[in-house]
């Protein structure tokens, strides 16, 4: 018997290995069923669930700044929110392996030349002692390169929606991506502000195009 890392109830997790693969050693079947993949109509640029496939109002407002296409895998529901919070803020690095198969498959489908993690501000990295973006990439068995770095900045979780959208640029290029397509992998897509700032820095590093994969898409 093991404890499910989400509900913390005892469960015979091993018996579910043939059905749920890499997710099974860490979550019970009930909690796995609470993780909902985005399968219906969604925004063609950011994966926001919609009634019909097209471009959402957020991406329309970004206008010319919407040069990034994002694919999110799961809805950011209560279960996913708890799981990512435990992963990021409580340091349960092993939870990155839950998403390994999903991330690997989508990264291969994206077919980009390079993969890049989203860097953390230095103080945040010191607090957490790991970068969740790098953890997701490495758990999927993918190689990544350091193309950008990041200045100190306030926590995104403490900012209002308006503050996020109008956030100043804190990313800057440190590597060469000349003529290369770059895939960015991160945990959550909320307003799209962070990934667009990342993409801008990558373009300054010479990237020909930028795509992103995120584990969850917040509907807010």
UniProtKB/TrEMBL annotation:
| Domain Double zinc ribbon residues, every copy | 4-59
User: Do you know which Pfam families this protein is assigned to?
Assistant: DZR_2, Pribosyltran
Gene3D superfamilies recorded: 3.40.50.2020
- Which residues are in the Phosphoribosyltransferase domain? 172-218
Q: Which domain of life is it from?
A: Bacteria
Family the UniProt entry places it in = Belongs to the ComF/GntX family.
**Protein name per UniProt:** Amidophosphoribosyltransferase
The protein's organism comes out as Domibacillus mangrovi
């Amino acid at each position: 018997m093991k404890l499910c890392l989400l509900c913390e109830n005892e469960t015979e997790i091993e018996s579910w290995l043939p059905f749920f693969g890499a997710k099974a050693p860490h979550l019970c079947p009930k909690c796995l069923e609470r993780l909902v993949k985005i399968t219906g109509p969604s925004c063609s640029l950011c994966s926001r669930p919609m009634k019909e496939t097209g471009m959402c109002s957020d991406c329309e407002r970004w206008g010319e700044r919407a040069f990034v296409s994002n694919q999110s895998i799961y809805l950011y529901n209560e279960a996913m929110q708890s799981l990512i919070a435990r992963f990021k803020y409580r340091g349960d690095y092993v939870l990155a392996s839950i998403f390994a198969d999903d991330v690997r498959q989508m990264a291969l489908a994206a077919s980009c030349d390079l993969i890049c993690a989203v860097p953390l501000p230095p103080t945040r990295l010191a607090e957490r002692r790991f970068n969740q973006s790098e953890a997701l990439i490495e758990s999927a068995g993918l190689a990544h390169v350091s193309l950008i770095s990041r200045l100190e900045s306030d926590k995104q979780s403490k900012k209002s929606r308006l503050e996020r959208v109008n956030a100043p640029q804190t990313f800057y290029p440190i590597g060469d991506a000349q003529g290369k397509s770059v895939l960015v992998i991160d945990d959550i897509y909320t307003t799209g502000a962070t990934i667009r700032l990342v993409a801008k820095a990558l373009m300054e590093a010479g990237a020909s195009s930028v795509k992103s994969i995120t584990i969850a898409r917040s509907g807010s």
